Amino acid sequence: MNYFELFGLEAKFSIDLAELSATFQALQKTVHPDRFAHSSSQEQLLAVQKSAEINDAYQTLKQPISRGEYLLTLRGTELPSEQQSFQDVSFLMEQMELREMLADIEHASDVDAAIFSAQETLDIQSQNIWQKTQQLLDKNNEQDNIAASELLRKLKFYHKLQIELERIEDALFDD
Amino acid sequence: MALLQIAEPGLSSVPHQHRLAAGIDLGTTNSLVASVKSGLPETLQDSNGSDITPSIVSYQQDTVLVGHAAEAFSVKDPQNTIKSVKRLIGRSLSDIKSKYPALPYEFSGEDNHPKLVTRQGEQDPVQVSAKILSQLVERAKSSLGGELEGVVITVPAYFDDAQRQSTKDAATLAGVNVLRLLNEPTAAAVAYGLDSKQEGVIAVYDLGGGTFDISILRLNKGVFEVLATGGDSALGGDDFDIAIADHIIEKSGLARPLSNSLERQISEQACHAKEQLSSQEKVQVTLAFEDALAANSEVSFELNRQTLDSLIQPLVTKTLRSCRRALKDADIKADEINEVVMVGGSTRVPLVRSSVGDFFKRPPLTSIDPDKVVAIGAAIQADVLAGNKPDNEMLLLDVTPLSLGLETMGGLVEKVIPRNTTIPVAKAQEFTTFKDGQTAMAIHVLQGERELVEDCRSLARFELRGIPAMTAGAAHIRVTFKVDADGLLSVSAMEKSTKVESSIQVKPSFGLEENDIINMLQDSMSHAQEDMDARMLKEQQVEATRVHENVSAALAQDGANLLNEQEREAIENALAELLTTSQSSDIAAIEQAIKDTDNITSTFAERRMDASIRTALAGHSVDEV
Fold this sequence. Notes:
By secondary structure, chain A is mainly α.
């Protein structure tokens, strides 16, 4: 049973997150180890396995990047590995500029404004890519799937930038 | 020969009975036990009518005292009177010494497995905790009038794996079945949530004697989903006391090192001053010296709340930092929090209340006694887990407090399970060899958020041997981390091309090994071997009965739908065999009969689980429409 089937969902990218969460809770109410606390060790073990599988499925489907990647794997599209070198030189140049933008925040005269504008830049650019990714995933043919997998890889770069921005924000306001 | 009992077809072999269970709050400063009696959770009192037991154990000549009785020896006999042992379990000696330099105990043993030297010999901190647990379990037994099915023991959400494992080991030594280790803030949320039927997002701020936790939970139709947790497993009211004690020493013109007894006296004065200043603006601090030759036999001065606040401000600020990170991890803004619940005696300090109120922009809730709320929540869950509420909708979904990872080249940590992942969880990560022909690999398991190995906490090391010799990078070793519902970790490893699962001896970096526990158990029994055998026989018999009851009930419920004639017959035969064997006193035979039944019912158990998932999905989609 794949993760979409486990949650009674059609295997597509756009899903209702509120429904996903409700199904998650309903499933856990059935299989969670707490339901088997006075059962035999065998049933307890089985409950831990099922419950862990449902947790993993929920996490995978909840986050858009992992959901997209999982969907592509189900479709038989090979995901580009982390080690594989990146062909898109202009994208890498943009990423370096974004990194510099983040590094400059602490030297900005108005730190709050710099953080706000950096967040806005990241949001606009990544939302653009998300839009294209979603369209490609909905088309679901071999070529578009490969293209979508490349875009998901790019989105992971944005995800890392987002984490970096939060780290900077934390460090600045911790003192 | 005893006649075999056979139940009527279609009925469970045993009528439903109320199973006795209790919740235990094993605190740094105080411990409590509570249980659900006629539907209502309440704390259980000792023979003196007190429900709070100081977490103090005193090793006297012929006896071991626990609680109030031990407290009397606190200043008189500090070296043999162990206070706040919770701060010591699952920790290394260097850890303890750097955090608490003024402890009056003598330590022995290895750095990672320190023991306390008392007049009754060396005591592992786990053994000391077991003494406290034993007393609480005894109280529950006599108050409830029978043997316990099991207990729920609470631990700080921010406890790491070694501290959790040590707590469970203490229960094993105390001879009590642990239904679940439950995180303290989650327990408090249960007590509050069920009380108020609250829905939405709540924050639980739990500042105890030695630990601090912050948990953000979403409450929805009986489900308590922890979104994020954070904290510090070595920050609590004791640290307030230490800050005040340092101030007292400075004001009194004293200098360390001081005698153990004077250290205890100062720390008790500090604690007293802190408590008084919760309701008063100022308090008088008085120290009496035993040394008759001293110029002054007494020192006395005034301490006011403003001074107290300035002493503890940095500690309170530290807790708020954890709150901010937890909110961020939960992806929740402070104004989305519907309620803030205060737990732990240290939340009585006015500066703590006002700071937390300011941070979350709402007055915190204190309607349930902050000392009792955790034990009460634990009692409610113990009642559910014991099976007394089959139709109960309550479900607790907790998370891992700290990231789990492995050491990779260059002393870096590769995270396998990030913090705040819902448990239980199983995650695998693949690794490869570094050199041609490499046949072994050292695996180092770590817990923590930092990138360098030296900044994280070492949980265990093991070696994976028998990897087939290949060129560097060709072998694929799959390491699987599993965290169960108690938050306890187990690790296994497999080389993928050969599918050989390596037999791994995980040597815990801290705490006890299995052999230690067995030895301690034997030491604690007068007729060691016979007692151990009797205990093991009983455990196997209980498990056999449990398996028999479960499978019989399952057959009655689903046998017709999910099994063919042949399968059903095989299971019934195994059950009959199990019943006969379980009445013998042959431990190995009973164990085998359980194993046989497990094997023959494994497909049935899986089919039942899948069927219940299908039913849940169907019922759920009907709800949606």
